[in-house]
Amino acid sequence: MAEQVPIREGAFVQGPEGAELVGNRCQGCGQIFFPKVQTCLTCFGDNLEETRLNRKGELYSYAIGHMPSMHFQPPYAIGYINLPEGIRVFAPLKIRDDKPFEAGMEMEVVIDHLWTEGDRDILGYMFRPV
After folding, report:
1. For range 28-49, the mean pLDDT
2. d(Cα 92, Cα 114) in Å, to the nearest integer?
3. Beta-carbon contacts of residue 129 (< 8 Å; ≥ 6 apart)
4. Domain spans of the chain?
5. Distance in angstroms (rounded) separating the CA atoms of residues 45 and 38
6. Which residues of 28-43 are buried (b: 16+ CB within 10 A; e: fewer)?
7. Could you read off the pLDDT of 50-90 as tens digits, one per residue?
């Protein structure tokens, strides 16, 4: 069995209600970041606390890839998801034949296999239509 490795350590957790992205919030100005940062990019403060982000968001835009990439075989989808916290996340999208993508549709985060490198399965966050 292949070892399962996250694409980015600490970027997501699998909670009791499903997957959650983990970002951080600046205690000085309230700005939220994903992925986490060491210093606030708004006020340059360094007092940041970890915060879990909403599991659901709205599809802002997307593209369908029809050419092979280094890790994905076509067709594959990528897109931007607006989260209620006021940030926009770029992520792979899970294609479902029964729910074509539309800007504005509700999406939820899931943890899934992205690709395999040797004897390691790379896991990452994706969004899928609700």
Report:
1. 96
2. 9
3. 59, 94, 96, 99, 101, 105, 106, 107
4. 3-129
5. 9
6. eeebebbeeeeebeee
7. 999 999 999 999 999 999 999 999 999 999 999 999 999 99
